[in-house]
Structure formats: structure tokens, C-alpha cells
Amino acid sequence: MTTSILLYSGGLDSFITAMLNPEVSLLYVDTRASYNAKEKYFLRRLMPDRPVIIDNRLDLSGLEREDKIVPSRNLLLIAIASYYGNDVWLSATAGDNSRDKDGTFAELASNLFSYMLSGGHYPNAEKVQVRLPYKWWSKGQLVDKYLAAGHPPEFLSKTVSCYHPVLEHCGRCKACIRKWIALAGNAVDKTHWSFPPWEAEIWPDIVAKILAPEGVWRCKAEDSETLEVLATFRPDLLR
Q: Over the stretch 81-123, which tens digit does the pLDDT of each residue have?
């Protein structure tokens, strides 16, 4: 029997994935990251009538880098998720360019957990499948699919992907920047930004990466969406 479980954070990508797939169970793993308390507060408010399993067993607080990355984090999250279901979903998009959110990783993780949980002490274990259901869509395209399905646009601005431990939407981190591009590109941004993301200090570096010969910031589609939004909000960066 297949039991599908989505690693859910209440961020834009996992929220849309949950809304487009109401049959999938939702799991939030509290890793004691600096922003976890904020995530838990908001994820309960997004879909109050849909159950979210909260697992508190994994403490990775001592491994969080200054840029908020925890090495091998997704592999550890999948390990926890495999206790709840054998069909594990990650809400990765085309612009997520870390190795633990690509197709090779999903295949290797599927094989690893299927191997570990078969035979011996697990005679009745099911094969584990790690899925990246929207890996080939950009973040903006994912928002477009959500809107095309008839879901309320105002919910999108209530999702929280920000790395700041206190501020709801700092407007300066890469997670905020990417969320703003996806929402503004679909003309549905109603987010209450603590700082306007179009004024963030990192824009010159981002634009330089996109416009460089053979340059890529996130992926071709997301880079194109970024330039289109900047043409409206920050044309000075494109001169």
C-alpha cells in the first residue's frame, strides 16, 4: 500500500503542492532551525482544517550555517518522512539548484531507503519513492498552476519562506526575493514586506549573474521571469 507524505513547511512551494494534491498527508519536521518557530506559527494558520503532522525528533540547530543551509538536510528529512509513508514528496522547483533537490538525488535517495528498509528486519516494507513532482516548473509557473486551478490568490502572500528568525518577510533574503518574483510576475503580490524586496542589496549581483555570457542565477525560466519583473520595478538595474 502506498502512503504519500509531503514534507511541508508552509512556504510558497510546499503550500501550493499541498493545495494541488489534497490527498497527500502533510509532515512538518521541526529541526530547531532559527526560523522554525515562525514557520510553525504560520503553517497552522494557512490551512486550519487540514491536519499537519509535526515531528520534533530532529535537532539540527548546531549544524545551521550562517546562510541558513544545513548540509544533507533533505536526506535527513526524508529519513523522518519514511517513518510515516513510503511515497515521499519534496516541493522542489526548477530554480532550486542544490544537489539535494535534483532528480539524481531523488533517485539515489529512493534506492537507498528502499534498500535499507527491505528484507531482514523489514520483511513487509514497501519500496520507498522520493518524488519531486514540480521539479520542471519554475516558482512562477507553480504559482500560475495554482491560480489556474482556481485557488485564492490572497493565500499565497500568507505563506512564509523567509530565513529571518523573527520578521515575517524580511524582503532581503534569497527566499523572499524568489517569492516576490513569483508573485509579482503573476500580479498577485500582497505580501507585507518588512523591507521592499525590489530594493534589496543583492540585486546587482543577481542581475550580473543573469546577464553574464552563459550566465545563470536560478534556471532559464526563473531568470527570464526575474528580468521581466525587474523591467517594471527596477529598470535601472537593466541599463
A: 999 999 999 999 999 999 999 999 999 999 999 999 887 777 6
Number of domains in the chain: 2
**What per-residue confidence (pLDDT) applies to 37?**
85
CATH number of residue 49's parent domain: 3.40.50.620
| pLDDT for residue 123 | 66
The stretches in the chain having pLDDT less than 50 are: none
Compute the chain's Rg from CA coordinates: 18
The parent domain of residue 202 ranges over 159-238
